[in-house]
Amino acid sequence: MATHAVTSQDFNQVVESNDLVFVDFWATWCGPCRAFGPTFEKASEANPDIYFAKVDIDQNPDLASAAKVQAVPTLMVIKNQQIVFQQAGALRASDMDDLIAQAKELDVNAAAAEEATEQAQ
Fold first, then answer.
1. On the CB side of 21, how many CA atoms lie within 13 Å of its CA?
2. Distance (Å, whole) CA 81 – CA 56
3. Which residue, 32, 51, 65, 71, could crosslink 18 as a Cys pair with Cβ 3.0–4.6 Å?
4. Does the active-site annotation cover 53?
5. What is the DSSP string of 45-114?
6. Residue 22's beta-bridge partner residues?
7. Is pTM beyond 0.85 here?
8. Candidates 33, 69, 78, 99; catalytic one
9. pLDDT digits (tens, 9 = 90+) for 42-94
10. In b/e form, how buried is each residue of 13-31, taking b as 16+ CB within 10 angstroms?
11. Residue 64: which of 29, 12, 23, 25 has the closest Cα?
12. Is 62 annotated in the active site?
């Protein structure tokens, strides 16, 4: 599966319709974004079970603001409609592969229960 251009209008539908979504917030003028683009594209081709979305922050400033994107590129991972990772900066291919493996293995419900237990203590 290739990457998909996502806008403010369809972002929520994408998140609600897919169990695991990787989102690349980027801009055409951003050098590191251009460097990270092929890594993101290659990851999308190697993982057809994951939805890979690209959000142009200049075309979708409201979405970038709502996601608290302060620098580009910013990678966000959403699993079961919950943000489980967000980081600015271009990842190396090996780091991207590690992140994908971790996201696939993550049990969001167990992580939320553990966090609730820690907060109660």
1. 24
2. 21
3. 51
4. no
5. HH-TTSEEEEEETTT-HHHHHHTT--SSSEEEEEETTEEEEEEESPPPHHHHHHHHHHHHH--HHHHHHH
6. 52, 77
7. yes
8. 33
9. 999 999 999 999 999 999 999 999 999 999 999 999 999 999 999 999 999 99
10. ebbeebebbbbbbbbeebe
11. 25
12. no
Q: Which two tokens stand for residue 10?
A: 């369809």
Pairing of strands 20-26, 51-56: parallel
Q: What is the CATH code for 4-120?
A: 3.40.30.10
Length of the chain: 121
User: What type of residue is 41?
Assistant: E
Spot the catalytic one: 30, 50, 96, 100. Answer: 30
